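hiii so um. not sure if this is the right channel but i have a protein structure encoded as tokens and i wanna go backwards to a sequence. like what aa goes where. can anyone help
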């Protein structure tokens, strides 16, 4: 143990950061190396193989979809698809976050609201969102509303239950003191508890983004004329892996960027929450 402690003391913070960065990058480097080797071997046997395109083929596809306007529409296809998908994600996840916040706060702090709505919310959370996608298309049509509704139904129960549990963990002493000093129920819910659960709400949204993307891509694949999911399922009939893989990578990077931005916002705006989490 003393030897380990001595080695830890000799390691500078800058060296520790470099070491952590290298360790974090190692899995990515290994995956890329394995892919490049497998792609080279397949293309060496069959230059027309489409399963594992080379980096040059994917770069050509990126240039065609991202950097050159479409001859028919005049739009940059990747930009148009990204904008369409991000609007749907923002509307679906944003409305689910707002509704989940209101529902979770009231169920976590008002006994009658919990008794009335909590069983239904638990039941709703067990309904597979993708299973009701045909129902949404039939009831709401195949336009934007059904896609946003699918994201909402998939994300809302998770956020609402998370906020409910967070509100229930607020120390009762705070609520009793506020009521003793003359605060109303609305003052307690929205003045005392709301500021304390806001960072948890952002965390819940952040953790729900993966599911939101899943629901969005499923909806776009079935009925849409633009969007990242639509484009992936459109080109799959041609086995265009040179387009599919960059699109999947782009979706992953969008999700990663959103996750990073939300974590940074929490760390800077709610320092107390970040400290407690640490």
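sure thing!! here u go:
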């Amino acid at each position: 143990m003393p030897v380990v402690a001595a080695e830890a003391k000799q390691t500078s913070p800058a060296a520790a950061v470099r070491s952590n960065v290298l360790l974090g990058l190692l899995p990515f480097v290994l995956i890329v190396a394995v892919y490049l080797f497998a792609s080279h071997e397949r293309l060496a046997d069959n230059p027309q193989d489409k399963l594992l395109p080379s980096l040059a083929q994917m770069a050509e596809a990126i240039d065609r979809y991202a950097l050159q306007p479409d001859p028919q529409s005049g739009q940059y296809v990747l930009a148009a698809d990204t904008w369409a998908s991000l609007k749907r994600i923002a509307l679906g996840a944003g409305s689910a976050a707002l509704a989940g916040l209101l529902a979770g706060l009231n169920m976590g702090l008002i006994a009658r609201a919990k008794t009335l709505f909590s069983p239904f919310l638990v039941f709703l959370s067990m309904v597979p969102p993708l299973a009701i996608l045909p129902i949404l298309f039939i009831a709401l049509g195949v336009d934007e509303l059904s896609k946003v509704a699918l994201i909402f139904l998939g994300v809302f129960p998770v956020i609402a239950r998370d906020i409910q549990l967070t509100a229930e963990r607020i120390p009762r002493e705070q609520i009793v003191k506020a009521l003793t000093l003359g605060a109303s129920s609305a003052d307690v819910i929205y003045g005392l508890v709301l500021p304390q659960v806001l960072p948890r709400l952002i965390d819940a949204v952040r953790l729900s983004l993966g599911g939101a993307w899943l629901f969005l891509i499923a909806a776009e694949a079935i009925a849409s004329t633009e969007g990242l999911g639509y484009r992936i399922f459109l080109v799959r009939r041609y086995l265009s892996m040179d387009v599919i893989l960059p699109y999947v990578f782009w979706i992953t990077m969008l999700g990663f960027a959103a996750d990073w931005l939300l974590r940074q916002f929490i760390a800077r705006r709610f320092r107390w929450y970040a400290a407690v989490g640490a």
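oh and Residues 3-8 have pLDDT under 50 and may be disordered.
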